[in-house]
Design a protein that fits this description.
heterodimer, A: about 300 residues, mainly alpha, MetI-like fold, two-stranded antiparallel sheet, flat, B: about 425 residues, alpha/beta, D-Maltodextrin-Binding Protein, domain 2, 9-stranded mixed beta sheet
């Protein structure tokens, strides 16, 4: 019966994989997938659960007031994202590059200090910065005055032209640790041989960073960008904590998240509108989906990866 | 075996007999936005009720004011709301009643002790059904720092010109911020600014009802003129008022750094606890000496019952106690500044509260213009008024443009009856 010996042993179905996956899948379905799908579903119905097709979307983009608030929120959101990409991520990369310098002392200390704001609650960050910048009690105007720059002080959070940028910079301060850590980890994974080889070829210092390290961490920068994008277009907490759901002054800090909150849950005397709220949520979902797809198919596939 | 059976039967019988007693031992939860009043409820109101009604436990569970409506709506939809609902006036509560979240209280003992005006804020449009017990009204006015007034030799202003003369005095003196108000939170400008000084211009109820009837418009002089006065306030506000919050303003006044604070009677308790100087109050100044004065005497707070309450009897017992004179006296004295709406006069000890309530005799009372009916649609007139008041104070929008914008927004959804 030699053939029996040669025949491959039939592997039993590996049930344990299913069993191990089940809890996470169940929890994720209940708290993420189901609410997401039901919100998308709700966007096609009126407040009283009558099917309206694309009626809610027509109302959102057709009604002059609603569409004005929507485009205003979207514009603000784009600006919020641009500030993050221009300020938070480059500074994060810079900090990571400095931290990965082997000659730097107290590296662990700096790493911790830069990362601490990230673990603070939005409410604390919003409230603390509101106090720091407060024209009545804040320390900012005094500090600026003591170095002779008192004339620069403005009630930034209360002025339409500065409020959104100020909030974006506060958010940068808070989350600078994320790009820093991700890119720091990527920099550490570059083998020393590569850097030593570069040094043998006479590439040192900054040119080593630009020519060797940066290209090698580009995939990490891509991940950071997409995380920033998703985070920014879902942002709500900081504006709500610092400026309230009315996103003052004059809606200049209104993001898609705050618009969604006001519409869905209502605010002060304004009653909530479940249908329109879901519609805005659906549009936000589509925007984020589109952004992520552009990244995944347009950018990530073209990034060159190096075997290290 | 037989013994066990008998025992079981006996214990079941006891349990059945005891059931009503257990049902009496109910816990009812109150939903409210009055976080400031937590201690008053816990130390004064609830003990007084529990002493008179053994077997009913009451829990006061407030939510922050700006989140209250949204949170309450969500809780009611989800079936997790408390038994007793503190009612916002007018449409917010009417909407809850129409959705079946609030129970009718027409047959509640004690409801006949309130006038139709007091009940109007919590009744259906045809006044047939009332769904909340009127609890308190707040009166708008201006607090002032008596020491500051003595220091610069100012007297309490009665007319608009005198008011600005006093503000000029403080500005010239420079020790005090003339007016404590900021625009960061937005509602201050509308509620404590526009709706505070406005009734003198639109003649209280006359103008408010005409606006609802469609015979007046927000572009009429009576509705634009208050914005004109607000625009003049800008020069007297503190530095950086654009980022000054409501609590900043409160602190500026109670720390003695500001002279005048436009607000309402609800501040009395907090200010008396925090301010170290004597305070006075004056009603919104009239345009010419001798004019009839109008005040905003706003039916602000009522209390009703969750229609799906698990303890309807206990909840009704509580509500009819709220409608009684006993509650009225405890409430008006424990929370000076919330004036009882009951027909039975309530004796109040607090001098500032007495001053506020004395205006009811010499001035015409009205309620906030944007609360009844006109904030039913989108854009919401109340929320729009917040924005417009801020824009006008900052000088970013002219009073006329603000009036025109609000009227256009209102007309986009509101059609006055019979027009």
């Amino acid at each position: 019966m030699a053939s029996d010996d040669i025949a491959p042993v039939k592997k039993p179905f590996r049930w344990h994989i299913l069993v191990f996956l089940l809890p996470a899948t169940a929890v994720y379905t209940v708290v993420m997938i189901f609410p997401l799908l039901s919100t998308l579903y709700q966007a096609f119905f009126s407040q009283t659960w009558a099917f309206v097709g694309l009626g809610n979307f027509e109302q959102l983009f057709g009604d002059p007031r609603l569409s004005a608030s929507f485009w205003n929120a979207l514009r603000n959101n784009v600006w919020f994202f641009i500030i993050h990409m221009l300020v938070q991520n480059p500074i994060g990369i810079l900090l990571a590059a400095l931290l990965s310098n082997p000659r730097l002392r107290l590296r662990g200390f700096y790493r911790t200090v830069f990362f601490i704001p990230t673990i603070l609650s939005f409410v604390i960050v919003g409230f603390v910065w509101k106090l720091i910048l407060s024209p009545t009690w804040g320390v900012t105007s005094g500090m600026l005055k003591s170095i002779g720059l008192g004339f620069l002080f403005q009630p930034w959070l209360g002025k339409e032209e500065y409020a959104l940028t100020t909030l974006a910079l506060i958010s940068n301060w808070q989350f600078i640790g994320i790009p820093m850590m991700l890119i720091y980890a990527a920099l550490l994974s570059i083998p020393d041989e590569v850097l030593e080889a570069a040094e043998c070829d006479g590439i040192t210092g900054w040119s080593q960073f630009w020519k060797i390290q940066l290209p090698l961490v580009l995939p990490a920068i891509g991940i950071v960008s997409i995380l920033t994008f998703v985070g920014n277009f879902n942002a709500f907490d900081l504006v709500y904590a610092a400026q309230g759901a009315q996103a003052g002054p004059n809606f200049s800090t209104d993001l898609l998240g705050t618009l969604l909150y006001r519409t869905f849950f209502g605010y002060q005397l304004q009653l909530g509108d479940r249908a329109l709220g879901s519609t805005i949520a659906a549009v936000m979902f589509l925007i984020i989906l589109a952004g992520v797809c552009i990244y995944l198919f347009g950018i990530q596939t073209r990034l060159r990866r190096y075997q290290m | 075996m037989r013994l066990t059976k008998h025992l079981l039967l006996a214990s079941t019988a006891i349990a059945l007999a005891a059931a009503p007693a257990f049902a009496q031992d109910a816990t009812i939860t109150i939903e409210s936005w009055r976080t400031d009043d937590l201690t008053v409820w816990q130390d004064k109101i609830i003990p007084a009720f529990e002493a008179a009604n053994p077997g009913i436990k009451v829990v006061f569970s407030p939510t922050a004011p700006t989140e209250y409506n949204a949170a309450l709506n969500a809780k009611l939809e989800g079936g997790s709301a408390g038994d007793i609902i503190t009612c916002r006036p007018f449409d917010a509560s009417l909407e809850l009643y129409n959705k079946g979240h609030l129970a009718s209280l027409n047959d509640l003992p004690g409801m006949d002790g309130f006038s139709p005006v007091a009940k109007a804020a919590w009744s259906t449009d045809d006044q047939a059904t009332t769904f909340c017990v009127p609890m308190g009204a707040v009166i708008h006015g201006f607090f002032y720092n008596k020491e500051a007034f003595e220091a610069v030799g100012a007297t309490v202003p009665a007319t608009v010109d005198e008011f600005f003369a006093v503000l000029d005095k403080f500005k010239a003196d420079g020790t005090y911020i003339p007016l404590a108000m900021g625009t960061n939170d937005q509602w201050e400008a509308a509620t404590m600014g526009y709706n505070n000084i406005g009734p003198n211009y639109w003649k209280g109820e006359e103008g408010r009802l005409a606006l609802i009837a469609g015979t007046q418009k927000l572009t009429d002089e009576g509705w634009v003129a208050p914005y004109r006065q607000l625009a003049r306030w800008k020069d007297y506000l503190g530095d950086g008022f654009e980022a000054q919050t409501y609590s900043d303003s409160q602190n500026l006044f109670t720390l003695g750094r500001a002279a005048i604070y436009p607000t309402g009677s609800w501040e009395i308790a907090g200010f008396e606890a925090n301010a170290a100087f004597p305070m006075g109050v004056f009603p919104p100044p009239v345009q010419n000496a001798g004019d009839t004065c109008y005040i905003s005497d706003h039916t602000d707070i009522g209390i009703g019952m969750n229609a799906k309450s698990a303890n309807p009897d206990a909840a009704r017992t509580f509500l009819s106690w709220v409608a009684s004179a006993e509650f009225g006296t405890i409430f008006a004295n424990a929370l000076p500044g919330f004036f009882s709406l009951s027909d039975t006069p309530v004796k109040m000890e607090d001098p500032l509260a007495q001053e506020f309530v004395s205006w009811r005799d010499k001035c015409e009372s009205s309620i906030r213009s944007t609360y009844a009916i006109l904030s039913r649609g989108t854009p919401n007139l109340e929320n729009e008024t917040w924005n417009a008041s801020v824009q006008v104070i900052k000088g970013a929008e002219t009073p006329e443009a603000a009036g025109a914008r609000l009227q256009a927004g209102l007309e986009s959804w509101y059609k006055p009856a019979g027009m």
